[in-house]
Design a protein that fits this description.
This protein is an alpha/beta fold and 257 residues long. The protein contains eight helices and twelve strands. Adenosine-5'-diphosphate binds next to helix 1. Magnesium ion binds next to helix 1.
Length: 257
């Protein structure tokens, strides 16, 4: 990692404080993810990992009470959910929503269409060709294109579908919230391969996970430990192994010391 990240090519989260129902969940959260890097956030349940992810995506339930988020120097928090997505922010949800009545293919197609200049139409043949190729990479059956988004999908199928959306939307920054939960080891490898295929100098990843296991397949540049609404430790990929071995109680004890 460079000592001074280029703000115009980074996702910068500064002193972010967030409340829900009057309760403070993020308490002055700081993190910079430069393009080209994969950062992992690990932490116990209830520490605010999903809150962070959803605030970045623009979820309306959360109130930002302080701080800033800059995506390549642009104020992300001032943008609508749609604008954020079109500007290149992508969130793979921990609990993906079902959208009855909207086919998977039409959902992704509409999102792609929204990224085109006015008056330009998606080339349907090329679109399906590309989508089928990506589904093959993710070992997803073609029949998933015609099914309603996530409706009746198993936990693992929903997670693969989130990665399919990510691959099709080509985001600048991708936040993956516990994409490993609900996946067996074979599915985990397939999903990780999908993510790794998108690693590039022009994209940043924030990979949120409770377990080290995912990070054996998506090897992060930096690992952050989150505790009670903020990052309390950062290190290299070995920090994940150390955490797995010693447990989160270790961090708590260190903080108390
Ligand atoms: P993590 O993803 O690290 O497990 P979350 O961000 O999901 O943590 O939750 C952090 C805290 O915020 C928890 O105490 C949780 O109960 C609370 N919280 C999150 N979302 C909501 C919500 N929609 N309504 C009320 N409380 C919430
Ligand atoms: Mg969570």
């Amino acid at each position: 990692m460079t000592s001074e990240p280029d703000i115009s090519r980074s996702l910068v989260i500064k002193d972010l404080s967030v409340e829900i129902d009057g309760r403070e969940i993020l308490k002055g959260f700081n993190l910079t993810v430069p393009k080209g890097e994969v950062h992992a956030i690990m932490g116990p349940n209830g520490t605010g990992k999903s809150t962070l992810a959803k605030v970045l995506a623009g979820h309306e339930d959360y109130t930002v009470t302080g701080g800033q988020v800059l995506m390549d120097g642009i104020d992300l928090l001032a943008m609508s959910v749609d604008e954020r997505s079109r500007a290149g922010m992508f969130l793979a949800f921990q609990y993906p929503n079902e959208i009855p009545g909207v086919s998977n293919a039409n959902f992704i197609r509409a999102a792609r269409q929204a990224r085109l200049p006015d008056g330009e139409e998606i080339d349907a043949v090329a679109f399906y060709k590309e989508m089928y190729a990506k589904m093959a990479e993710l070992e997803m059956d073609k029949s998933f294109t015609g099914r309603s988004v996530n409706e009746g999908f198993s936990g693992g199928e929903k997670k693969r579908n989130e990665i399919l959306q990510m691959m099709m939307l080509d985001p600048k920054y991708a936040v993956l919230d516990e994409t490993d939960s609900g996946l067996d080891i074979d599915a985990l490898k397939v999903v990780a391969q999908g993510v790794n295929s998108l690693r590039s100098k022009d994209r940043g990843f924030l990979v949120i996970t409770h377990y080290q296991r995912l990070l054996s397949y998506i090897v992060p540049d930096i690992v952050h430990v989150m505790w009670d609404g903020r990052i309390v430790r950062s290190g290299g990929k070995d920090l994940a192994l150390e955490l797995e071995e010693k447990g989160y109680e270790w961090v708590k004890e260190e903080l108390a010391a």
